[in-house]
Specification:
single chain, 415 residues, alpha/beta, Aspartate Aminotransferase, domain 1, Aspartate Aminotransferase, domain 2, 2 domains, seven-stranded mixed beta sheet, 14 helices, 39% helix, 15% strand, binds pyridoxal-5'-phosphate
Protein backbone atom coordinates (compact mmCIF):
# COMPACT_ATOMS: atom_id res chain seq x y z
CA UNK A 1 0.00 0.00 0.00
CA UNK A 2 1.21 3.50 -0.75
CA UNK A 3 2.08 4.95 2.67
CA UNK A 4 1.44 8.47 1.43
CA UNK A 5 -2.11 7.70 0.35
CA UNK A 6 -3.33 8.03 3.92
CA UNK A 7 -1.03 10.31 5.90
CA UNK A 8 -1.90 11.01 9.55
CA UNK A 9 -4.39 13.86 9.77
CA UNK A 10 -1.99 15.99 11.82
CA UNK A 11 0.41 16.10 8.85
CA UNK A 12 -2.25 17.45 6.47
CA UNK A 13 -1.73 21.04 7.59
CA UNK A 14 -0.22 22.90 10.48
CA UNK A 15 -3.14 23.82 12.68
CA UNK A 16 -1.07 26.36 14.64
CA UNK A 17 -0.30 28.22 11.40
CA UNK A 18 -3.97 28.07 10.48
CA UNK A 19 -5.01 29.44 13.84
CA UNK A 20 -2.83 32.50 13.28
CA UNK A 21 -5.02 33.28 10.25
CA UNK A 22 -8.00 33.84 12.58
CA UNK A 23 -7.45 36.97 14.69
CA UNK A 24 -10.38 36.29 17.01
CA UNK A 25 -8.79 33.02 18.12
CA UNK A 26 -6.03 35.08 19.76
CA UNK A 27 -8.43 36.80 22.19
CA UNK A 28 -9.23 35.87 25.75
CA UNK A 29 -12.58 35.37 27.46
CA UNK A 30 -12.72 35.72 31.26
CA UNK A 31 -8.93 35.81 31.26
CA UNK A 32 -8.67 32.45 29.45
CA UNK A 33 -7.78 31.81 25.81
CA UNK A 34 -10.96 31.62 23.75
CA UNK A 35 -11.86 28.07 22.74
CA UNK A 36 -14.41 28.47 19.94
CA UNK A 37 -16.56 25.35 19.80
CA UNK A 38 -19.58 27.08 18.26
CA UNK A 39 -18.72 26.99 14.58
CA UNK A 40 -22.01 25.29 13.71
CA UNK A 41 -23.74 28.49 14.84
CA UNK A 42 -21.27 30.68 12.99
CA UNK A 43 -17.68 30.13 11.93
CA UNK A 44 -14.84 32.56 12.65
CA UNK A 45 -13.34 34.57 9.80
CA UNK A 46 -9.77 34.36 8.53
CA UNK A 47 -7.79 37.57 8.04
CA UNK A 48 -7.96 37.02 4.28
CA UNK A 49 -11.75 37.41 4.38
CA UNK A 50 -11.66 40.39 6.75
CA UNK A 51 -9.04 42.09 4.54
CA UNK A 52 -10.98 41.40 1.37
CA UNK A 53 -14.15 42.99 2.75
CA UNK A 54 -12.16 45.99 4.06
CA UNK A 55 -10.42 46.40 0.68
CA UNK A 56 -13.79 46.30 -1.06
CA UNK A 57 -15.09 49.15 1.09
CA UNK A 58 -11.81 51.09 1.01
CA UNK A 59 -11.26 50.91 -2.75
CA UNK A 60 -14.08 49.30 -4.70
CA UNK A 61 -17.46 50.13 -3.17
CA UNK A 62 -20.19 50.77 -5.71
CA UNK A 63 -23.61 49.45 -6.51
CA UNK A 64 -23.66 46.76 -9.17
CA UNK A 65 -25.55 46.00 -12.37
CA UNK A 66 -26.52 49.60 -12.90
CA UNK A 67 -23.49 51.77 -13.47
CA UNK A 68 -21.04 52.27 -16.29
CA UNK A 69 -18.33 54.07 -14.33
CA UNK A 70 -15.11 52.39 -13.30
CA UNK A 71 -16.11 51.51 -9.76
CA UNK A 72 -19.48 50.11 -10.86
CA UNK A 73 -17.94 47.79 -13.42
CA UNK A 74 -15.25 46.78 -10.90
CA UNK A 75 -17.83 45.95 -8.22
CA UNK A 76 -19.84 44.06 -10.81
CA UNK A 77 -16.80 41.98 -11.73
CA UNK A 78 -16.01 41.29 -8.05
CA UNK A 79 -19.61 40.20 -7.35
CA UNK A 80 -19.85 38.02 -10.45
CA UNK A 81 -16.39 36.64 -9.70
CA UNK A 82 -17.68 35.51 -6.30
CA UNK A 83 -20.60 33.80 -8.04
CA UNK A 84 -18.16 31.91 -10.26
CA UNK A 85 -16.17 30.83 -7.19
CA UNK A 86 -19.32 29.50 -5.49
CA UNK A 87 -20.28 27.64 -8.68
CA UNK A 88 -16.87 25.99 -8.93
CA UNK A 89 -16.88 25.21 -5.19
CA UNK A 90 -20.19 23.34 -5.52
CA UNK A 91 -19.36 21.71 -8.86
CA UNK A 92 -22.20 23.55 -10.62
CA UNK A 93 -22.35 23.55 -14.42
CA UNK A 94 -22.21 27.36 -14.63
CA UNK A 95 -22.11 30.49 -12.42
CA UNK A 96 -25.61 31.29 -13.69
CA UNK A 97 -26.90 28.38 -11.59
CA UNK A 98 -26.00 30.25 -8.39
CA UNK A 99 -28.52 32.66 -6.86
CA UNK A 100 -27.22 34.82 -4.02
CA UNK A 101 -29.48 35.11 -0.97
CA UNK A 102 -28.98 36.22 2.64
CA UNK A 103 -28.41 32.68 3.88
CA UNK A 104 -29.88 29.19 4.12
CA UNK A 105 -33.08 30.44 5.74
CA UNK A 106 -33.77 32.87 2.93
CA UNK A 107 -32.80 30.30 0.30
CA UNK A 108 -35.23 27.71 1.64
CA UNK A 109 -37.96 30.35 1.95
CA UNK A 110 -37.33 31.34 -1.67
CA UNK A 111 -37.79 27.75 -2.87
CA UNK A 112 -40.79 27.02 -0.66
CA UNK A 113 -42.49 30.28 -1.70
CA UNK A 114 -41.96 29.65 -5.41
CA UNK A 115 -42.95 25.98 -5.22
CA UNK A 116 -46.05 27.11 -3.32
CA UNK A 117 -46.94 29.19 -6.38
CA UNK A 118 -46.01 26.72 -9.08
CA UNK A 119 -45.30 23.14 -8.17
CA UNK A 120 -47.47 22.12 -5.24
CA UNK A 121 -51.12 21.07 -5.50
CA UNK A 122 -53.58 19.77 -2.87
CA UNK A 123 -52.57 16.29 -1.74
CA UNK A 124 -48.99 16.60 -3.00
CA UNK A 125 -46.36 15.50 -0.51
CA UNK A 126 -43.29 17.27 0.79
CA UNK A 127 -40.88 14.80 2.37
CA UNK A 128 -38.51 16.00 5.12
CA UNK A 129 -36.46 14.10 7.70
CA UNK A 130 -36.83 14.15 11.45
CA UNK A 131 -33.42 15.85 11.72
CA UNK A 132 -34.29 19.14 10.02
CA UNK A 133 -33.51 22.64 11.27
CA UNK A 134 -36.59 24.85 11.65
CA UNK A 135 -35.44 26.67 8.49
CA UNK A 136 -36.17 23.48 6.56
CA UNK A 137 -39.52 22.86 8.23
CA UNK A 138 -41.40 26.13 8.70
CA UNK A 139 -41.17 27.46 5.09
CA UNK A 140 -42.59 24.11 3.88
CA UNK A 141 -45.41 24.41 6.41
CA UNK A 142 -46.25 27.81 4.88
CA UNK A 143 -46.24 26.25 1.40
CA UNK A 144 -48.32 23.28 2.56
CA UNK A 145 -50.88 25.54 4.21
CA UNK A 146 -51.17 27.65 1.10
CA UNK A 147 -51.51 24.77 -1.36
CA UNK A 148 -53.08 21.89 0.55
CA UNK A 149 -49.90 19.85 0.21
CA UNK A 150 -48.97 17.49 3.04
CA UNK A 151 -45.68 17.19 4.96
CA UNK A 152 -44.26 13.70 5.54
CA UNK A 153 -41.32 13.02 7.84
CA UNK A 154 -38.71 10.29 7.44
CA UNK A 155 -37.52 8.99 10.81
CA UNK A 156 -34.00 8.40 12.14
CA UNK A 157 -32.88 5.52 14.36
CA UNK A 158 -31.49 5.79 17.89
CA UNK A 159 -28.03 6.57 16.48
CA UNK A 160 -29.46 9.46 14.50
CA UNK A 161 -29.01 7.70 11.15
CA UNK A 162 -31.79 7.92 8.61
CA UNK A 163 -33.94 4.79 8.34
CA UNK A 164 -33.47 4.41 4.60
CA UNK A 165 -36.17 1.78 4.18
CA UNK A 166 -38.68 4.01 5.93
CA UNK A 167 -37.55 6.94 3.81
CA UNK A 168 -37.95 4.88 0.63
CA UNK A 169 -41.38 3.70 1.78
CA UNK A 170 -42.53 7.31 2.24
CA UNK A 171 -41.62 8.19 -1.34
CA UNK A 172 -44.35 7.74 -3.92
CA UNK A 173 -46.17 9.25 -6.87
CA UNK A 174 -47.47 12.11 -4.71
CA UNK A 175 -43.99 13.12 -3.49
CA UNK A 176 -43.39 16.43 -5.21
CA UNK A 177 -40.55 17.85 -3.08
CA UNK A 178 -37.90 16.18 -0.92
CA UNK A 179 -35.98 18.62 1.27
CA UNK A 180 -33.27 17.15 3.48
CA UNK A 181 -30.33 18.29 5.50
CA UNK A 182 -26.84 17.33 4.36
CA UNK A 183 -25.51 17.26 7.95
CA UNK A 184 -27.69 17.53 11.05
CA UNK A 185 -26.87 20.57 13.17
CA UNK A 186 -27.85 18.66 16.33
CA UNK A 187 -26.64 15.08 15.86
CA UNK A 188 -23.88 15.68 13.32
CA UNK A 189 -25.33 12.94 11.10
CA UNK A 190 -24.02 13.08 7.54
CA UNK A 191 -27.07 12.02 5.56
CA UNK A 192 -26.53 9.68 2.58
CA UNK A 193 -27.76 12.44 0.29
CA UNK A 194 -26.63 10.79 -2.95
CA UNK A 195 -28.60 7.66 -2.22
CA UNK A 196 -31.57 9.61 -0.87
CA UNK A 197 -31.57 11.83 -3.97
CA UNK A 198 -31.42 8.83 -6.29
CA UNK A 199 -34.37 7.23 -4.50
CA UNK A 200 -36.40 10.46 -4.70
CA UNK A 201 -35.56 10.88 -8.38
CA UNK A 202 -37.17 7.50 -9.16
CA UNK A 203 -40.44 9.19 -8.24
CA UNK A 204 -39.68 12.40 -10.11
CA UNK A 205 -39.49 14.54 -6.96
CA UNK A 206 -37.64 17.85 -6.85
CA UNK A 207 -34.75 17.41 -4.40
CA UNK A 208 -33.51 20.25 -2.19
CA UNK A 209 -30.49 19.87 0.09
CA UNK A 210 -30.00 22.09 3.14
CA UNK A 211 -26.22 22.37 3.04
CA UNK A 212 -25.79 24.83 5.95
CA UNK A 213 -23.73 22.30 7.92
CA UNK A 214 -22.56 20.41 4.82
CA UNK A 215 -20.25 22.78 2.94
CA UNK A 216 -17.98 23.64 5.89
CA UNK A 217 -17.15 19.95 6.45
CA UNK A 218 -17.46 18.00 3.21
CA UNK A 219 -16.43 18.54 -0.38
CA UNK A 220 -19.69 19.01 -2.27
CA UNK A 221 -20.36 18.26 -5.91
CA UNK A 222 -23.98 18.99 -6.71
CA UNK A 223 -23.84 17.11 -9.99
CA UNK A 224 -22.49 13.99 -8.30
CA UNK A 225 -25.23 14.28 -5.65
CA UNK A 226 -27.81 14.71 -8.42
CA UNK A 227 -29.94 17.17 -6.43
CA UNK A 228 -31.95 19.97 -8.03
CA UNK A 229 -31.13 22.61 -5.40
CA UNK A 230 -28.43 22.98 -2.74
CA UNK A 231 -28.60 25.85 -0.23
CA UNK A 232 -25.98 27.19 2.20
CA UNK A 233 -24.99 30.16 4.39
CA UNK A 234 -21.74 32.08 3.95
CA UNK A 235 -21.28 32.84 7.63
CA UNK A 236 -20.94 29.15 8.51
CA UNK A 237 -18.34 28.87 5.75
CA UNK A 238 -15.89 31.39 7.30
CA UNK A 239 -17.42 34.25 5.26
CA UNK A 240 -19.42 37.31 6.40
CA UNK A 241 -23.04 37.22 7.52
CA UNK A 242 -25.80 38.34 5.15
CA UNK A 243 -24.76 36.21 2.21
CA UNK A 244 -25.62 32.67 1.14
CA UNK A 245 -26.35 30.85 -2.06
CA UNK A 246 -28.89 28.60 -3.71
CA UNK A 247 -27.55 26.32 -6.41
CA UNK A 248 -30.23 25.17 -8.81
CA UNK A 249 -30.05 23.23 -12.06
CA UNK A 250 -30.51 25.73 -14.87
CA UNK A 251 -33.46 23.94 -16.43
CA UNK A 252 -35.19 24.18 -13.03
CA UNK A 253 -34.42 27.89 -12.54
CA UNK A 254 -35.59 28.65 -16.07
CA UNK A 255 -39.03 27.23 -15.28
CA UNK A 256 -39.50 29.23 -12.09
CA UNK A 257 -41.12 32.66 -11.66
CA UNK A 258 -39.53 35.33 -9.43
CA UNK A 259 -40.42 35.51 -5.75
CA UNK A 260 -39.57 39.14 -4.97
CA UNK A 261 -40.04 42.10 -7.28
CA UNK A 262 -37.90 45.20 -7.70
CA UNK A 263 -34.82 46.46 -9.46
CA UNK A 264 -32.34 44.13 -11.18
CA UNK A 265 -34.74 41.22 -11.66
CA UNK A 266 -36.62 42.68 -14.64
CA UNK A 267 -36.30 42.90 -18.38
CA UNK A 268 -39.05 45.37 -19.42
CA UNK A 269 -41.30 47.17 -16.95
CA UNK A 270 -44.59 48.74 -17.94
CA UNK A 271 -47.48 49.64 -15.69
CA UNK A 272 -49.58 46.97 -17.43
CA UNK A 273 -47.05 44.16 -17.07
CA UNK A 274 -43.41 43.31 -16.62
CA UNK A 275 -41.08 40.77 -18.15
CA UNK A 276 -38.33 39.29 -16.08
CA UNK A 277 -34.59 38.83 -16.41
CA UNK A 278 -32.99 35.44 -16.96
CA UNK A 279 -31.73 33.49 -13.91
CA UNK A 280 -29.94 34.18 -11.65
CA UNK A 281 -30.90 37.89 -11.81
CA UNK A 282 -34.61 37.01 -11.87
CA UNK A 283 -34.24 35.86 -8.25
CA UNK A 284 -32.04 38.71 -6.97
CA UNK A 285 -34.29 41.76 -6.60
CA UNK A 286 -32.71 44.89 -5.17
CA UNK A 287 -29.17 45.65 -4.06
CA UNK A 288 -27.49 42.49 -2.79
CA UNK A 289 -24.84 42.15 -0.05
CA UNK A 290 -22.01 42.86 -2.50
CA UNK A 291 -19.17 43.12 0.04
CA UNK A 292 -20.32 39.94 1.79
CA UNK A 293 -20.46 38.09 -1.53
CA UNK A 294 -16.92 39.23 -2.29
CA UNK A 295 -15.94 38.06 1.21
CA UNK A 296 -17.55 34.69 0.47
CA UNK A 297 -15.38 34.40 -2.62
CA UNK A 298 -12.31 35.06 -0.45
CA UNK A 299 -13.44 32.43 2.08
CA UNK A 300 -13.75 29.88 -0.72
CA UNK A 301 -10.24 30.74 -1.97
CA UNK A 302 -8.96 30.30 1.58
CA UNK A 303 -10.67 26.91 2.00
CA UNK A 304 -9.45 25.71 -1.38
CA UNK A 305 -5.94 26.58 -0.22
CA UNK A 306 -6.31 24.07 2.62
CA UNK A 307 -8.46 21.54 0.75
CA UNK A 308 -11.85 20.18 1.80
CA UNK A 309 -10.58 16.61 1.79
CA UNK A 310 -7.80 17.51 4.24
CA UNK A 311 -10.33 19.40 6.37
CA UNK A 312 -12.64 16.38 6.48
CA UNK A 313 -9.84 14.02 7.50
CA UNK A 314 -8.51 16.38 10.16
CA UNK A 315 -11.94 17.02 11.66
CA UNK A 316 -12.95 13.36 11.63
CA UNK A 317 -9.90 12.52 13.75
CA UNK A 318 -10.49 15.50 16.04
CA UNK A 319 -14.18 14.71 16.59
CA UNK A 320 -13.40 11.03 17.24
CA UNK A 321 -10.87 12.13 19.86
CA UNK A 322 -13.45 14.43 21.49
CA UNK A 323 -16.12 11.72 21.46
CA UNK A 324 -13.85 9.26 23.18
CA UNK A 325 -13.03 11.75 25.92
CA UNK A 326 -16.64 12.81 26.39
CA UNK A 327 -17.58 9.17 26.92
CA UNK A 328 -15.49 9.21 30.10
CA UNK A 329 -17.39 12.12 31.72
CA UNK A 330 -19.69 10.87 34.50
CA UNK A 331 -23.41 11.35 33.82
CA UNK A 332 -22.82 12.54 30.25
CA UNK A 333 -25.22 11.15 27.65
CA UNK A 334 -24.29 11.54 24.01
CA UNK A 335 -27.26 12.24 21.73
CA UNK A 336 -26.94 10.05 18.67
CA UNK A 337 -23.98 8.12 17.41
CA UNK A 338 -24.26 8.40 13.61
CA UNK A 339 -22.14 6.26 11.29
CA UNK A 340 -20.71 9.34 9.59
CA UNK A 341 -20.50 12.59 11.57
CA UNK A 342 -19.77 16.21 10.66
CA UNK A 343 -18.41 18.75 13.13
CA UNK A 344 -21.18 18.49 15.74
CA UNK A 345 -21.62 16.59 19.02
CA UNK A 346 -24.69 16.90 21.27
CA UNK A 347 -24.94 15.76 24.88
CA UNK A 348 -26.68 16.31 28.18
CA UNK A 349 -25.28 15.83 31.68
CA UNK A 350 -27.66 14.15 34.05
CA UNK A 351 -28.75 16.47 36.84
CA UNK A 352 -27.19 19.66 35.41
CA UNK A 353 -29.26 21.99 33.21
CA UNK A 354 -27.72 22.54 29.76
CA UNK A 355 -27.50 26.30 30.22
CA UNK A 356 -25.59 25.80 33.45
CA UNK A 357 -23.12 23.52 31.67
CA UNK A 358 -22.66 26.11 28.95
CA UNK A 359 -22.07 28.97 31.40
CA UNK A 360 -19.60 26.89 33.42
CA UNK A 361 -17.73 26.23 30.16
CA UNK A 362 -17.91 29.90 29.23
CA UNK A 363 -16.27 30.78 32.55
CA UNK A 364 -13.27 28.80 31.25
CA UNK A 365 -13.32 30.60 27.90
CA UNK A 366 -15.03 27.67 26.11
CA UNK A 367 -17.90 28.74 23.81
CA UNK A 368 -20.51 26.07 23.09
CA UNK A 369 -24.18 26.33 22.27
CA UNK A 370 -26.88 25.14 24.66
CA UNK A 371 -30.58 25.14 23.83
CA UNK A 372 -32.83 23.86 21.08
CA UNK A 373 -30.44 24.63 18.19
CA UNK A 374 -33.53 25.66 16.17
CA UNK A 375 -34.32 21.99 15.71
CA UNK A 376 -36.89 21.08 18.34
CA UNK A 377 -38.37 17.99 16.62
CA UNK A 378 -35.10 16.03 16.55
CA UNK A 379 -34.38 16.78 20.21
CA UNK A 380 -37.89 15.63 21.09
CA UNK A 381 -37.21 12.42 19.17
CA UNK A 382 -34.53 11.78 21.81
CA UNK A 383 -36.84 12.81 24.67
CA UNK A 384 -35.19 16.22 25.14
CA UNK A 385 -36.06 19.89 24.89
CA UNK A 386 -32.43 21.02 24.66
CA UNK A 387 -28.81 19.84 24.64
CA UNK A 388 -25.26 21.12 24.92
CA UNK A 389 -23.54 21.27 21.54
CA UNK A 390 -19.84 21.74 21.00
CA UNK A 391 -19.09 22.06 17.30
CA UNK A 392 -15.67 21.76 15.70
CA UNK A 393 -13.87 23.25 12.73
CA UNK A 394 -10.42 22.74 11.24
CA UNK A 395 -8.97 25.52 13.43
CA UNK A 396 -9.74 23.56 16.61
CA UNK A 397 -7.12 21.37 18.26
CA UNK A 398 -6.97 18.22 20.36
CA UNK A 399 -5.73 20.42 23.20
CA UNK A 400 -8.98 22.40 22.99
CA UNK A 401 -11.05 19.21 22.94
CA UNK A 402 -9.00 18.10 25.97
CA UNK A 403 -9.81 21.36 27.79
CA UNK A 404 -13.51 20.81 27.08
CA UNK A 405 -13.39 17.29 28.47
CA UNK A 406 -11.38 18.29 31.53
CA UNK A 407 -13.78 21.14 32.35
CA UNK A 408 -16.77 18.83 31.90
CA UNK A 409 -15.16 16.37 34.33
CA UNK A 410 -15.00 19.07 36.96
CA UNK A 411 -18.57 20.25 36.17
CA UNK A 412 -19.76 16.62 36.40
CA UNK A 413 -18.02 16.20 39.74
CA UNK A 414 -20.25 18.96 41.17
CA UNK A 415 -23.37 16.88 40.61
N1 LIG B 1 -30.07 24.59 8.31
C1 LIG B 1 -29.18 24.10 9.18
C2 LIG B 1 -28.86 22.63 9.16
C3 LIG B 1 -28.54 24.95 10.09
O1 LIG B 1 -27.66 24.47 10.95
C4 LIG B 1 -28.87 26.32 10.06
C5 LIG B 1 -28.26 27.26 11.03
O2 LIG B 1 -27.89 26.89 12.12
C6 LIG B 1 -29.78 26.78 9.12
C7 LIG B 1 -30.38 25.89 8.26
C8 LIG B 1 -30.15 28.23 9.02
O3 LIG B 1 -29.04 28.97 8.63
P1 LIG B 1 -29.06 30.57 8.64
O4 LIG B 1 -29.48 30.96 10.03
O5 LIG B 1 -27.64 30.93 8.33
O6 LIG B 1 -30.02 31.00 7.60
Amino acid sequence: MNQNANPPAASLFNVETIRRDFPILQREVHGKPLIWLDSAATAQKPQAVIDRVARYYEHENSNIHRGTHTLATGADAAYEGARAKVAAFLGAASPQEIVFVRGTTEGLNLLAAIFGETLLRPGDEILLTEAEHHANIVPWQFAAKKTGAVIRVAPVDDNGDILLEEYARLLGPRTRVVSITHISNVLGTVMPIREMTALAKRHGATVVIDGAQGVPHRRVNVREIGCDFYVFSGHKLFAPTGIGAVYGRMEKWEQLPPWQGGGNMVDKVMFENTSFAQPPKRFEAGTPAVASAVGLGAAIDYLNGIGLDAIERYETELVAYALEGLGSVGGLRLIGMPKDRGGVISFVIEGIPDLEVASALDAEGIAVRAGTHCAQPILRRFGLESSVRPSFAFYNTKAEAGALIETLHSIGARR
